[in-house]
Known about the structure:
Blueprint: E1 7-17, H1 22-33, E2 37-55, E3 64-69, E4 73-84, E5 87-98, E6 101-125, E7 129-134, E8 139-144
Antiparallel strand pairs: 1-6, 2-3, 2-4, 2-6, 4-5, 5-6, 7-8
Amino acid sequence: MKYTQCRMGRVFVVRFDHGEDFLKELTGLIKREDVRAGIIHFLGALEEAEVVVGPERPVVPPTPMWRGFQDGREVVGLGTIFWKDNEPKVHVHSTIGREEKLLLGCIRKEAKIYLTIEAVILELEGAMVKRQLDEKTKLDLLELGS
């Protein structure tokens, strides 16, 4: 285990609107406001998305297993915001459901909003954290500074 300490910074309350691409809009906001580290909590609905729901097999490095939908589903999620090189890398996990159909996974591609998503972004100040490619796992893991 590795860790670092930081403090709470700004708080953003955000409304994403119908038809917008959730990750694209979120990344744009992060860049505009220069949020270098943070946490996002969100809820609302997605019309369509593709989600990683686990590895095909539990091996390292993993091969992602993708599932998609286009039928409008409720969503609640949590994510982290850290940068890799000169770009923000958002890591978002969510539960997405309609009736008894549920997906739990990582939103990585376009996710089209249905009606709205409400979000709260908590900025973390003084976080000596960035993302860096880990050769073993082939994932952009957190690199913690002192």
